[in-house]
Amino acid sequence: MYCTASGGGTLSYQWRRGTNNLSNGDYYSGVTTSVLTISNADSSCEGNDYNCVVTGTCGSVTTNNASVYLYTATAFDTPSNAASRSPGGASIQ
Predict the structure, then answer these.
(1) Can you name the residues that pair with 61 across neighbouring β-strands?
(2) Local structure of 44: helix, strand or coil
(3) In the prediction, which pLDDT does 72 show?
(4) Which of 11, 48, 55, 56 makes a 20 to 30 Å CA pair with 74?
């Protein structure tokens, strides 16, 4: 996910869950950049409490919370003879 900000001077970023700062490692990288990457996520990464604190010369601001949800892909197995069968089960010649 990413955060876009503008302001005077150099901006710094800190990604958090709730009020807890995230650290690079395990699932997270880029925790002090504008782009947070979550890799190899599992259900412990799900939540609606991700936010970023952006700090500049005029002070700090916290983004609105963002959500992370994981969805499991479903794989379909097609029988090898599916092309030779009609929906009614009769063979197609």
Answers:
(1) 54
(2) helix
(3) 81
(4) 48
